[in-house]
Automatic annotation (TrEMBL):
Originating organism: Jatrophihabitans telluris
Pfam families: FMN_red (PF03358)
NADPH-dependent FMN reductase-like domain: residues covered: 28-168
Coiled-coil features, chain-numbered ranges: none
SUPFAM superfamilies per record: Flavoproteins (SSF52218)
Record's protein name: NAD(P)H-dependent oxidoreductase
Bilayer-crossing regions: none
Highest rank taxon of the organism: Bacteria
Amino acid sequence: MSTPSARPSTNPSAASVAPLRAVALVCTLNPSPARSSSDLLARQVLDALADQGVAGSTVRVVDHDVKPGVTLDQGDGDEWPAIRQQIIDADILLVSTPTWMGQHSSVCQRVLERLDAELSEKDDQGRLLTYGKVAIAAVVGNEDGAHHVSAVLYQCLNDVGFTIPAGGVSYWNGEAMHGVDYQDLPETPEEVASTTKTLAVNAAHLAGLLRGANYPAS
């Protein structure tokens, strides 16, 4: 796990919502220290969030023993509870996944399944603990599929209580039938950089609003 430092904000309104925190769950299939396009894009999103005064950290999920299941703690060395605590402590959750066979990774699916347990966790007003938290996505792949994967993530994350901002994903898909990875590009495409910046601005803005005025009890 690594924790980039938040940069001084270039957004005059950011001070009113800082300090905000983000945690990125990187769902690559490659354990550290292998290179990962999902990790690269996640860090670029965190850098953009840092420009909005948001401190961030990353967790490469495959490096941890996250047991299968849908409870808060599956026991027997399960490392999900520690990862979950970082999510609960954060204002923004970023899920970054590669695309395999047109789908999110199996590691990402494990994360979504473990988040299902949040449906049973409520505060003293009966709200899910994830209410008031923002979720965003980052998707990479060498074929089309980013819209499908982000749609799946939006539904799953919203279903367990997170709020998705406008423009809630940054993504890159390479040309079909080719093998170039995002991490192998000579530079970040302008369209991706612009989308990532907008994602960060919107996510930080929404997280600040929700921190100051959470959803009402219902």
